[in-house]
Amino acid sequence: MVKIPELLMNLTVRERMLPVMAIGLLCLFLHSCTAENLPISVKPAEPKIAVASVVGPSETLFITLSNSFSALSAEDANDLSQDAIDRLLIDNALVILEYEGFRDTLSSFFDVSGLYGTSLQSFNDYQPLKLTVFDSTSSETITSETKLMPQAQVDSIQITRRDTSVSFLTDFSYQIKDPDEDNFYVVHAYQLTAPDTSEADSVNNDLFFSDQGFLIYEQLVTDRAAENGIIANNDVFEFSSPVDSAIVVITHVSEGYYRFLEARQRSGGIISSLANEPVNHPTNIENGVGYFSAHKPTVRLVGVD
Amino acid sequence: MIPQKILLMTVFLLLCANLHAQITISGHIYDNSEQEALPGATLYLPELEKGTATNAYGFYSLTINSSPVKLSVSYLGYETIDTLINLEKNKTIDFYLVEQVGQLGELHVSATNFELQEQVNSTKMSTVNIKPREITNIPTLAGEADLIKVAQLMPGITSGNEGTTGMFVRGGTDDQNLVILDDAVVYNLSHLFGFFSVFNSDAIKDVEITKGGFTPDHGGRLSSVMDIRMNDGSFNRYNARGGIGLLTSRLTVDGPILKDKMSFMLAARRTYIDRLFGLFGADLPYYFYDFNAKLNYKVSNRDRIYLSSYYGDDVLSFDEASNDSEVSEGLDFGFRLGNFTSTLRWNHIYDNQKLFSNVTLHQTRFNYDISGDFIDNSLLIRSQIQDVGLKADWQYFLTPDNSFIFGAQAVTHFFRPNVISTSGDLSELIENSQGGLIQNTEWSVYGGNERKLTKRLKVNYGLRYSLTSSQGKIYSGPEPRLSIRYKIDEHQSFKTSYSLMRQYMHRVSSSSIALPTDLWYPVTRNVKPQKAHQIALGYNRIFPASQFSFSAETYYKVLDQLIEYREGANLVLNDNFEQELITGKGNSYGIEFLIRKKRGSFTGWVSYALSKTSRNFDQLNDGNTYPAKFDRRHVATLVSMFNLNERVSFSAVWTFQSGARFTPQTGQFLMPNASLTQVELIPIYGDRNSTQLGNTHRLDINFILKPRGNDRIGGEWHIGAYNFYNRAAPFRVDIQNNGVTYEYVQQGLFGFIPSISYNFNFSSK
């Protein structure tokens, strides 16, 4: 059977050029006939106060406040300059945490824009907390209620390097003692970029403020598979380079916050992105967006066997 | 007691006397040249104002009280036979209709068009027929004749995204359409990621689509029944026909194996997209092909056996050996998507010539394989559904005014979703899984009666009872069906219908776009059957002098236990995807108008549908009711086909559709990571499907030029254009950077696409 390239080789230059020109003209014709995109007007969302809460070293509750903004401002976080981020963060807001009849006015933390904090160390497990924020610039007030979730009762954590030459695949197993009620957990593992120390708290400080580690594993866990009050999970993840230890953070969270984190995970899915499918993030903020969560993470520095 | 006995005896004697006077004629109506049975052909007794139509197998039975009597036999596109029936006893009479050629249709319009009349007389409503010639002549994407694209031009049937074969019937979803090819269910309707249907137009004899007023012999889907019949093959001559188009070529041959006893039909089609891209230096190792085959054996005048089959595959295969494309470096990737159906049918006419039976044994298989190899790793994901079923139907034509249908059906489904096989390091990350075989059987029994109660009033009532069990749970229920016709006069009638449909299987998709990874999944302990009630009211009027018919129908449909997936669900590599499914409700209502002309040198239709479709799921849109994605408020279609002369025809289609719905991203906010070292953006969306894409309108045209030929050899050039005035049909909204700032943009898929193809036919003798 004569293949098309062989057939072309037998033709003169002019004969070869003719079909090429014809195909080129056809391509040009089809391209010029590509229908132009149509404009569309979409009503933008009203700016709202966005709340995020993170619990850091020494059980410090950090609350970040910012203004939500137009979907047409940036495609992803890399599009935002530091100036743009600073403009979105809310300074000088009145941030009040109420619990058992007490009112704690949170101050700006380390003078970082939009960051407010307080210690959770003296709080009891399942302590109801109410957050109220008043932003004098926008005159908006938001409120939110949550409960302080207790520490996860971590039984064991083990990280074992696989005997393989082509990857840094690692077996990861852990056990959590699971109380009777429905419980939800978040498990994070960080690979450290700085030399290891022997203290988890110290490394946790480095993670938070020095960016000396990065997230390599995040798993949302329910207690559906718990047996005899124990959640025992085995999984696999891969380090980017050989390491001797890793930081593992296991956090017992409320179902609402679990759903929020689940939506965040789902919205990054390839099918959602390809199909332009919406993934709404649940919120517990009245008149705002985001999620207010209070919890006490269990932080462990785990050696890699 | 004695008067009662006398009364009973008198009734019995009268009945016997009446029966003695009755004569039954029965038989088939065929195409004269091909001897293909013609379903839906009409027989009419003008003096008695009574008539009947052939069933799906071309069989009729007509019982008359007096003889001689005038009889007219007609079928769209064929010469009408007017004859005098003078019989003393029951007789089998087969009629052979001669096809009209050229513009003869206009000249041979009889004073009364019985086929048109049937639209007024019949209790059938919400039903449209499509003939192969319409499929061939109507312009479509890239000039490829496509049954589904023609169906989408009918009122009440909307397309999904532009150019795709998705069908959304009266607010239903794409998986709520029962599509049967010679009684075997076809699960995957499309080739080329949804852009072309799997049906080769040359292999199709007849298509009927029912959107409401369902008869009891069909069930298992909520929204529509698309009954497609393959050509039987000619008993007396060999034919070959085919076409060469821009993207595909096709060839069909048929003819006798034993003259007047046994015939065959073979059809094949393949795309050469892979070769076409190769010419441009691009590597797209994708192709599809399909085969249709049928064997038709006339065992006796009363028995006939059909064996038919369809096989089709979509294949994409990037591999290292293919060439030096970027994708092929160390990575082999591909998928294969395949349909297979086979049907064995036995038609039998009983001695009394009034009872007709059809027993069908059918099998369907649909599977997809996704495979990949990378260095020492390999991955295979497979999903499969297989059906084996038996259906037995009886039709009893007691009189022209009274007929019965009854039967039973059993279909066993074998589902094996998400079979995963891995090797190498990959097997440590992704577990092997056999997917778990799920098997269930759907049982149904049904019966119905169509009866003319008075000169004006005719009813068709029936009941279907369906049952299935899955994972120890039994689901069952009655499905009543009712259609009533009230005839105002010879040219107009009112019709109304009610039907309850149950659906015991669903297509589970990760997104609103059809992907090859979509799974068919049965009811289980947790996933309940879907259910729909539909009522419809219609008005029909015919204009025999001008050959026009007009219908207006309004409907209201309530859907329950609809299946959706949770936001962001991923069903691939997810063995526990039942957790991702949620159930809810929906409703749809609307009004549809259709003006159609089927005969003459100018044919076509104008349709308009106004409808509203909404959904309600507790877990979506905060539990608030929202518009369905393909809730297109206004849909209008103008289809026109002109025979300018015997050698030149022209057809044009103009369509207008309100834009589909989508959920816009309206805002976003900052969210720090768990160690406060980075931020990401969390999107904020508007209400679900709250925004409407731009309206779509498009003109497609097609010229048909027939070079001089003869009775045995012919051909025609089709020169056409899709989207003639090059307007984008938006199918999604993206946020794009225009160089200065970001903006919302509606993207269209296809612009102006010219096409050319050549169709040919040869016949022996």
Report a brief summary of the structure.
The complex is a heterodimer of chains A (about 300) and B (about 775). Chain A is α+β, with helices and mostly antiparallel strands.
Largest sheet of chain B: 22 strands, antiparallel, barrel
**Unreliably modeled segments of chain B:** 10-20, 103-112, 322-329
Portion in strands of chain B: over 45%
The total beta strand count of chain B reads: 48
Into which percentage range does the β-strand content of chain A fall? 35-45%
What is the average of the pLDDT values of chain A? 83
Rounded average pLDDT of chain B: 86
Give a short account of the largest sheet of chain A: 10 strands, mixed
Rg of chain B, Cα atoms, Å: 27 Å
**Distance between the ends of chain A:** 60 Å
Please give the alpha-carbon distance between the first and last residues of chain B: 72 Å
What's the number of helices of chain B?
7
Secondary-structure element order of chain A, N to C: HHEEEEHEEEEEEEEHEEEHHEEEE
Radius of gyration of chain A: 27 Å
**Estimated structural class of chain B:** mainly beta
Shape of chain A: globular
Contiguous helical run count of chain A: 6
Q: Which regions of chain A are unreliable across 5 or more consecutive residues at pLDDT < 50?
A: none
Can you describe what's shown?
The complex is a heterodimer of chains A (305) and B (765). Chain A has helices at residues 4-9, 13-32, 82-88, 200-209, 255-267, 270-274, and strands spanning 38-39, 49-56, 60-67, 69-70, 94-99, 102-108, 115-119, 128-135, 140-149, 153-161, 169-177, 184-192, 213-222, 230-238, 245-253, 285-286, 288-291, 294-295, 298-303. With 305 residues, chain A is α+β, with helices and mostly antiparallel strands. In chain A, the strands form three sheets. In chain A, strands 2, 3, 5, 6, 7, 8, 9, 16, 17 and 18 form a ten-stranded mixed sheet that branches. In chain A, strands 13-12-15-19 form a four-stranded antiparallel sheet. In chain A, strands 10-11-14 form a three-stranded antiparallel sheet, with no helix packed on it. By secondary structure, chain B is mainly beta. Helix content of chain B is 7%, strand content 56%. At the A-B interface, helix 2, strand 1, strand 2, strand 3 and strand 4 of A face strand 41, strand 42, strand 46 and strand 47 of B. Strand 1 (38-39) of chain A pairs antiparallel with strand 47 of chain B, so a sheet runs across the interface.
